[in-house]
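Sat 14:20. Reprocessing the chain from the morning session after the first attempt stalled halfway. Input below, unchanged.
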Amino acid sequence: LLMAYYSGSGADTVGAAGLNALALCFFNPTPLSNTTCNFTDPSTPCIAPAASNGGINLTWIYTTIQATQAQLRPNTVPTPNQNPTYFISFGGEGFGGQAWDAIFAAPDTAGTLGKNMAALAAAIQALFPNITIGIDLDIEETKTALPSFPVFLSAFRAAAPAAQYPLQLCALSSFGGSDHFKVDLLKSYGPAQGGITHINMMVNNVDSSCADMSKYWLSPSLDFLPRDSLVCGVWGENRVTWILHNPGCGLLLPYISSKGVGIGIWEWQAGNTTAIAALIAAVRQPS
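Finished this time. Tokens:
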């Protein structure tokens, strides 16, 4: 995956920069956890923004896919002109963890969330059969270990098989602190079990080199995960001086390319894409 988080700015440059995937962000998971949703209605109240900016509603999702899929398609790897990938992203840092804790505290709400997210993915797939559609869970700042996550996953996978619908979980690159519980989730419900298929290891909130991030991304503690399930979070042109850089890129970028590791850009924006496009090109064709 060569993916960027997208909240509505810069649709005209996603293809030229080399992307083949977008995470459309951010939506509120709560409405999907407490009712049966009807996704044949483009104005369904089940699809609501998680914050004041970014994802708006189901119509916005459809419009964005329609406007960008032809741009992304030539950039698919290893074979060009295959299905581009879209994730519908729920949560985000600004959304906080309280609502996630409430949803995953009870089997009923967790199971309803799983069923509705599967139905959402299927509804989008029916309208856009030539894309791959998945769900991104940007779960941050929780105080619990999401005890009903297995119920959610069982309900989601009952209608959305892993071979067709990717499920991405966001985590700190270090998996430290409050995110350490996600290691156990991935060991029990990760790619090997047909559960979570991708792990977005989020950007470091400081200027970080390839050498710095290699300590996390190449850690032996992640050897239980297939390398092509990993998505390395990097800054985009929104913080251009923090875009991944030397030292250490001469070793890291060829490793990423050869192992099929993904890149996840936070976040896409309108305007100049020179620096981030150069990074994508270096991953695609390492020196």
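Strands lie at 2-6, 21-27, 85-91, 132-138, 167-172, 198-202, 230-235, 262-266.
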